[in-house]
Fold this sequence. Notes:
Blueprint: H1 7-22, E1 30-34, E2 39-44, E3 51-59, H2 63-70, H3 74-79, E4 83-93, E5 96-103, E6 114-125, E7 128-135, E8 146-147, E9 149-150, E10 153-160, E11 163-173, E12 175-176, H4 183-206
Parallel strand pairs: 6-8
Antiparallel strand pairs: 1-2, 2-3, 3-11, 4-5, 5-6, 6-7, 7-10, 9-12, 10-11
Domain START: 29-207
GO molecular function, one term: cholesterol transfer activity
Protein name: STAR4 protein
Amino acid sequence: MDPLPSPSPLATRLRNTLVRYHGIADGEWRVAKKTKDATVWRKPSEEFSGYLYKAQGVVEDVTNRIVDHIRPGPYRLDWDSLMTSMDILETFEENCCVMRYTTAGQLWNIIAPREFVDFSYTTSYEDGLLTCGISLDYGEVRPNFVRGFNHPCGWFCVPLKGCPNHSLLTGYIQTELRGMLPQSAVDTAMSSTLANFYSDLKKALKS
């Protein structure tokens, strides 16, 4: 088990990586799924043998409230149907923490429940916010769970130009689920999970 990293350099590195992803040209992405709430693209990840996914959609609310529902905190468990538990293990500053969370089984339990330990960081970006994270090799793996690993992931949330009560939410996700899984099942699950994330989030913000 690794010791906890120093938060400040990790936060800076993480932010820079996400900003770089945000600048990847449109032509490098392939559409993976499209719904009324969001479009999901993917491209081969530079971090592991799977894909980096990009999801984007317009959400009717202000950036701060949206990000409060996404980042680690009391809201997330209430609405995210995939997340089954969440504990904050360490808090470094108001915007930096280490959390452990578990996810439900997917695809009729072809994908068994997973556990993740992530470093999470929220910071300003342009007129909005960026909340991002990366997994750490920290803490004992609980029984009945496979420990997954999130390579640099994050959500950019900025006010929609000319429409301040709406926000453009763009996510970058690259999750290594680990365990013995067919890659096609993982790819199907990731695209659907990201599209559902938007519809679940919109319902939560309206309730």
